[in-house]
Predict the 3D structure of the following.
Amino acid sequence: MRTVRNPVVNVMMTAATKAARRMIRDFGELENLQVSKKGPSDFVSAADLRTEKILFEELGKARPGWSFLMEEGGRVDGDGSDDRWIIDPIDGTTNFLHGIPHFAISIAHERNGEILEGLIYNPVYDEAFWAAKGEGAHLNDRRLRVSGRTDMSQALFATGIPYQGRPGHDTFLKTAEAVMAVSSGIRRMGSAALDLAYVAAGRYDGYWEEGIKPWDMAAGILLVREAGGYVSDLKGGSAMLDKGEVIAANDRLHGPFSRLLQQALRA
Ligand code: IPD
Ligand code: CA
């Protein structure tokens, strides 16, 4: 990965580059495990933990005393500083497990509840989506801007589908029914972080999901905002991290898109 002017983004990139090297080696190994009866899930859990450990060590070395919120390791308190890292070592674990190259490392830096920098890195495509508050959103060296589509019938949306053991099946079906009726399609690619990064990049016009965690969305929320898009919870407020739900879209479609979802949820 390249170096950029923002020092915290540079720290994230250095840590992610190191973790990604190991992750890609593990992803290559997986091909040998697909045929086993039990499947490679134990191996993937180990890869997840290894990746997180590298990120934890590298970020901790670069910014001693900052706290952590991590998918695997949970909360680790720092020395009382207001800064914390929010980390998902492999977002898109199910894809990783099945040998599908659509997953990412997601790292956000939050200070007093405000997300200041974020990085979402897909190591297979070498795509580093990064943003810093007030400094815009970028894909590698290129500045990002959300899509300019204004018509729902031409818009492409992403979402996540709850599965066995997760709540929200009924509400998901209601919202999907409403979106499929008026849009040009819905994708379920399997990484919330990349879904948000793709909204920032104008690849998707919008994204919604319920039942996700702070590490799935912290970096992505900043990316969408810095690319000129809007992000809210399902009621239009800003409690995405607390409620575990998100609506993200380009600036023109966020209004009609969220009204459509709210109407579907009331039905
Ligand atoms: C999952 C992915 C998926 C979303 C799930 C998440 P994981 O994260 O982001 O797209 O639908 O809700 O849990 O398990 O791959 O880190
Ligand atoms: Ca995740």
Observations:
- Residues 7-30 form the longest helix (24 residues).
- The chain has a mean pLDDT of 94.
